[in-house]
Amino acid sequence: MVSDPRSDEELLASIQMKDVRALEEFYDRHRVLAYSLALRSLGSTGDAEEVVQESFLNVWRASATYRPERSSPRSWLMSIVHHRAIDKLRGRQSRIQPVAWEEGMDVPDASDVWRDVSDRLTGEDVRHALAQLPPEQRETIELAYFKGYTQSQIAQLMEVPLGTVKGRMRIGLHRLKAALENAQAELALE
Amino acid sequence: VNNPHDDLSDMLGAYVLDALSPEEQATFEEHLQECAACRAEVAELQQVVDILPLAVEPVPPPAALRDRIFAALEAEGVAQPDLQAMPGGAPARSRRPAVRSMLRVREVWFAAAAAVIILGLVAWNVALQTASNQQSAYQRDVVAALASGARVTPMSGTKSAPGASASLVQPHRGAPYLIVEGLPTLPANHLFAVWFLHGSSPDPAGVFNYSGSGAQIVHLPVSSLGYSVSAVTDEARPSGRQPKGPIVLLGKIA
Fold it and tell me: What distance lies between CA A131 and its chain's CA centroid?
């Protein structure tokens, strides 16, 4: 029997046990996505490489803080890359850590169904779903997520009231979710 | 006039996109402590934000980056176990081998369980493809399902579809899915219909098309819990509440 590739969850469990081979496999699997995200945010290959390096070292050092019920290993890695890239953009040394409201509170787990959906989505699906958003909602989301602008900065940049920016983000994300679910439903029926 | 909750919940999209100032973030997180509705919406939208990286056009990093990362780890001394990673913070050196061998035992068990299922399908399916064919996406998907702790029901092809095989995967939580392979090509206006049976009464559990080659995952909208038999039929569209076409796959739900 051939040996099957380990799942991301298995790799992360091994990384927690300080298995460096598992980190190598995890790197090989996600290096392109991690680097592409950093490069898109930072626009400089040198900065992007630095962020990817810091991020994988962070995965190694902080693997014990990974919470499988909150996100997939890939999402966890991408949030590390994202935050480090944004920190660099904003010129901050460190971020305010989110408060630990997860502990003991009724935070819903990522739904199994949605997790299945997101695992099967391709880059093309996500780009297509983004393209379906009204341009001002898409631009607002991209300025915030990829370029690290705050809502107030975006309001100035786009010359609209702050309330409009807030609405574009929240409504845009809900629409994006619906568009992605539709994309999956169509795939399943095709 | 807006109430304070509305004012705060307006920031929800900006919060998950990380677009709040430190002060706004602190204020919103204080609100989150008290507001279950906002916590639920944050969790919902966070899942969308988590897949935004996929939208980026892929660019591979230079090969030298890999060397630099693992050289940096080497310099740190990768052999140093992280005590934090160990439940209870017990001395890592003594615990590590035990945990490792436990993992190995688990892997072996999953592999063995998968082998049993694959062998079962071979036994029931005289016309199943060659061994090298099965050790592909289909088997990988079955092993992944077993590894996740899901309940896996093998389904075998009937006389109408001797080359077909499938596994019904019911995770602990959420909806089940089928892993199918080797189904016949249907006429253009036909679909495969999934049925769950309790006794002799079938309930519809979704329809799907088969792409024509390889393993395919079919997500089903209803749980298989409480049913005793799973079947797939070939139905002329539109499919009704009762199966009319021939059964192509059949499995007894464990």
Answer: 18
pLDDT value of position A184: 73
Helix axes B63-76, A45-61, angle to 10 degrees: 40
Is A100 touching B (CB cutoff 8 A)? no
Q: Which residue do the tokens 């919470």 mark?
A: A67
The C-alpha angle B181, B184, B190, rounded to 5 degrees, equals 115
CA distance linking residue B251 with residue B254, whole number of Å: 9
A:29-68 residues touching chain B, CB 8 A cutoff: 31-37, 39-40, 45, 48-49, 52-53, 56-57, 60-61, 63-64
Q: How far apart are CA A121 and CA B26, in angstroms?
A: 33
- Give the whole-angstrom CA distance, residue B109 versus residue B131: 21
Per-residue model confidence as pLDDT tens digits over B31-42: 998 899 999 999
Instruction: Sort out which chain B residues have CB atoms less than 8 A from A118's CB and list them.
Output: 47, 50-51
Q: Are B20 and A162 in contact (CB under 8 A)?
A: no
Looking at the complex, report in whole angstroms how far the Cα of residue A134 sits from the nearest Cα belonging to chain B: 16
The one-letter amino acid code at B192 reads: F
* Measured distance CA(B52)–CA(B47) in Å, rounded: 9
Output the pLDDT for position A188. Answer: 63
CB B155 within 8 A of CB B125: no
**Nearest residue in B to A50, CA atom:** B65
Inspect the interface and report whether the beta carbons of A53 and B68 lie closer than 8 Å: yes
Least confident of A24-33, A57-66, A126-135, B143-152: B143-152
* Residues of chain B scoring pLDDT < 50: 1, 79-135
Mutate to test the interface with B, among A33, A173, A190 (most CBs of B within 10 A): A173
Locate A65 and state its tokens.
Answer: 């803080």
ipTM: 0.85
Which chain B residue is nearest to residue A186, measuring alpha carbons? B208
pTM: 0.57
The answer to whether A179 faces chain B, any CB pair under 8 Å, is no
Q: In this complex, which of B58, B81, B135 lies closest to A2 when CB atoms are compared?
A: B135
Q: Hey, is B178 helix, strand or coil?
A: strand
Facing B115 at nearest CB: one of A1, A18, A152: A1
Q: What is the pLDDT of residues B113-131, one digit of tens each?
A: 444 444 444 443 333 333 3
Chain B, nearest residue to A96 by Cα: B22
CA–CA separation, B46 vs A78, rounded Å? 12
Q: Encoding tokens for residue B96?
A: 């590590």
